[in-house]
Amino acid sequence: QKVSVEVLDHLEHLALVDFRDAEGVERLQKAIQFADQLHEVNTDGVEPMDSVLEDRCLYLREDDVTEGNCTKELLKNAREKVEEYFVAPPGNIPLPKLEERETFLQGS
Amino acid sequence: LAPWVPVVGLEIHAQISSNSKLFSGSQVQFAAPPNSLVSFFDASLPGTLPVLNRRCVEAAVMTGLALNCRINKKSLFDRKHYFYADLPAGYQITQQRVPIAVNGSLSYSLCIDNKMSQMVTKTVRIKQIQLEQDSGKSLHDDTRSQTLVDLNRAGVGLMEVVMEPDMCCGEEAAAAVRELQLILQTLGSSQAVMAEGQLRVDANVSVHHPGEPYGVRTEVKNINSIRFLAKAVDYEIQRQIEELENGGTILNETRAFDSKLGCTVPMRDKEGKQDYRFMPEPNLPPLILYDAKSLPANINHQQVVNIDWIHERLPDLPSVKRAKLVERYGILPEHSFTLLNEDGLTEFFENVVKQTQMKPKKVIGWILNDLLSYLKQHSLRVKESPVSSCLLADLLNLLEKKEISSTAAKQVFAELWKGERKTPLEIVKEKKLEVIQDQKELELICQAVIDGQENEVIVMVLG
Predict the structure, then answer these.
(1) Where are the membrane-spanning stretches (chain A) (predicted)?
(2) In this structure, which of A43, B27, B270, B279 has its CB flanked by the most CB atoms within 10 Å?
(3) Do A64 and B20 touch (CB under 8 A)?
(4) Is the pLDDT assigned to residue B115 strictly greater than 70?
């Protein structure tokens, strides 16, 4: 079962990844096939485990102020700043539609 | 023309009142220098991990209990992914699968026909309450085509309260939110001041014909006050009805309320349906809460949140406070609503009652009709009243002892309002407003009046 171009395009938009070439898509296919093996196990009536931490105790912190006040340090790596604000583009710049951008998926 | 049934649900985000953030130790404070209340975790720098703030858990449990919810002894954290400049991690930590509280209810009251005399009680179901992170703030600089990002708010704890679509109009939505606001403020779990962004409301609105399935719903955002909430909801209901009656369709979209124009407009920057790719938060184990029964023996109390302990310490909720006021003072239910609706008014009323012989049933009239209307006229809060509870009590005592008439009392009240620090007694003497008790003196006055109006007297005597 192949992953459709629509799904690949959708993933590229959502996660801003670039499958780049046939090898990238093939790797994805193989990863899905590998994970699909899980379906062979009968899990009826078994509670899913979503983390190996599930038996650990979730540590609760006291409500004290212990951090912050490091504006200079935080802004050190910012490419652009305006008076201690980070600068970002005006809004999300969406990935162009499939037909309009240069991507390996076009040919598929 | 077939009738329309409007359906309104609400998603309310209440900022938790705590010293530090939900998963980090940076301070929670409104209006501070940009990016000064931001830790490395809040800025999503690599190598940082979330550490849950106990106070935030307690706030959510308190709120859940006050809203009659079932508290989930085991709740989970998830990541909700989307890209935006004020969300540095690219995801928000929330509780999508198993939130901390579910299946509650909130009762609120409405006046029928705008008359305070007829109140009806309604209930809205609370679907769930979940803990989640707030995002930072974006300031849009359109002239320079850029967005300025301040992360002070990023990571502040929120309680998202989801109300089922049990409401049918702006008035109901507003009343429900007002009651929730009062509850949160009473609990102290959130200060819930809408103007400071501590309480944000999004409304989900749709219309349908009776007996038919629910219509397509729109989400309305950017509602900045309870008054605007009612307006926004009612506008959207009307807009949808008109659209459908003209043969149009409703898009499942997000719209913003424009308070200046009083209408909703489609929001820009919405790239179609969002896919949040929820996944369990891998860095946080499940949140386990205890009660008296399940509390383990040798436990570190700092590491335990005991639901029963919190339950026992819940303060009287607004509905209970109102019932107590009605019972104790013999006032009407609608009076108790007004008392609780104004910050400090209940205390003021009770202080006056303590210092006067006048019956509370009579005092309440002075509080609600005289004091409150003066305060409203001058846009003052109870705390700012130039007339203190002492002064008002003194005045009411004069009235109660029949040393002045009620008309005179109103005059004295108007004088007191000027805030010239005169006592009621001083004003009465100054303006000679004392009731004249002496029979002889009264006869002289009446005779003088009759003597001065001979013609009118003749007309009256002749019938």
Answers:
(1) none
(2) B27
(3) yes
(4) no
Q: What are phi and psi of B91, to 5 degrees?
A: -150, 160
For B9-19, letters b (16+ CB in 10 Å) and e give bbbbbbbbbbb
Q: Model confidence at A29, in pLDDT bands (50, 70, 90)?
A: very high
Domain range annotation of chain A? 1-40
E strand or H helix at B461: helix B454-462
**Six-digit token pair at B412?**
């004295």
Is residue B279 within 8 Å of residue B90, measured between CB atoms? no
Helix (H) or strand (E) holding B92: strand B91-94
Where does residue B323 rank: exposed (0-12), middle (13-18), buried (19+ CB within 10 A)?
middle
Cα(A67)–Cα(B164) distance, integer angstroms: 38
The model's confidence at residue A57, banded by pLDDT at 50, 70 and 90, is: confident
Strand A60-61, strand B52-53: pairing:
parallel
Chain B residue numbers with beta carbons less than 8 Å from the beta carbon of A66 are: 20, 25
Give strand pairing partners of B158. Answer: B15, B132
CA B216, CA B223: separation in Å to the nearest integer? Answer: 21
pLDDT tens for B290-313 read: 999 999 888 888 999 999 999 999
Percent of chain B with pLDDT strictly greater than 70: 97
Measured from the Cβ of residue B267, the count of other Cβ atoms closer than 10 Å reads 14
What phi, psi does B217 have (nearest 5°)? -105, 150
Do the beta carbons of residue B405 and residue B420 sit within 8 Å?
no
Q: What ipTM, to 2 d.p.?
A: 0.85
Residue tagged 């459709």 (tokens)? A4
Which of A54, A60, A79, A92 is the best residue to mutate to test the B interface, defined by the most B CB atoms within 10 Å of its own CB?
A60
pTM: 0.89
Cβ pair B54:A61 closer than 8 A: yes
